[in-house]
Specification:
Layout lengths: L1 H5 L9 E7 L8 E7 L17 H14 L2 E7 L1 H7 L1 H14 L7 E5 L10 E4 L7 H22 L7 H4 L5 H10 L7 H23 L3
Parallel strand pairs: 1-4, 4-5
Antiparallel strand pairs: 1-2, 2-3
Length: about 210
């Protein structure tokens, strides 16, 4: 992964920022993005796509990354903005803010995925970048750990949704609870339409068959 990043470093690119986000899929809570710049020779064992790591390993690497980074930044976009501008735009906004908040201005930005945010700094989207680029992988860990910690803290306010376990993602448990007791103020309203629409269709079908003589 480190060799992948080094391909982009040259006399004009001294500072390379890796950028990634976490939290596009959950039904509740914010989307979080991170940006990281390392010295070209910095290496941290086990850094990889956050989805490929255990929660304990991510927590362990989080401290190592922030201690060895030349600069890092984390940004949070809440569920109100997600509902207002949609999750894609909110994710791009979070990544742009993370880069803007870096204490060192990068010469080049590598972003996970196939979409890019507007930037005056040269930017390259990298599909599966979190499994290819050391810097993007490190950013994915910072974003994921930060978001998971936020959801664990928010679970104390709304323990009925078990966010400390599902982190707001649409697990069966989370969906069943939503259908039983309804959403919290921290749920993304635009994400719930399909769930409740599906339930209405199920209820309608159930009523139909109950009322129809077979």
């Amino acid at each position: 992964m480190k060799s992948f990043d080094k391909k982009y470093l040259n006399s004009k690119v001294k500072y390379l920022a890796g950028v990634d986000e976490a939290g596009r899929g959950p039904l509740a809570g914010p989307v979080v993005a991170a940006a990281v710049i390392f010295n070209k020779n910095t290496f941290i064992k086990d850094v990889n796509d956050s989805k490929q790591l255990t929660e304990s390993k991510r927590e362990e690497l989080f401290d190592k990354i922030i201690s060895k980074a030349l600069a890092y930044s984390v940004s949070i976009i809440d569920h109100y903005v997600i509902d207002e501008i949609n999750i894609l735009n909110a994710s791009l906004l979070a990544m742009k803010k993370a880069v803007d908040d870096l204490k060192i201005k990068p010469d080049l930005i590598l972003v996970d995925g196939n979409r890019a945010f507007q930037s005056e700094i040269p930017l390259i989207p990298i599909v599966k970048g979190d499994s290819l680029s050391f810097s993007i992988a490190a950013a994915s860990i910072l974003a994921k750990v930060t978001r998971d910690r936020l959801m664990k803290n928010l679970a104390a306010q709304y323990p009925e949704y078990f966010w400390e376990q599902n982190k707001g993602y649409p697990t069966k448990q989370h969906r069943d609870i939503l259908l039983k007791i309804g959403p919290s103020p921290l749920h993304r309203k635009t994400f719930l339409k399909n769930i409740f629409a599906e339930q209405q269709e199920i209820n309608f079908a159930s009523d139909y068959f109950n009322d129809t003589e077979l």
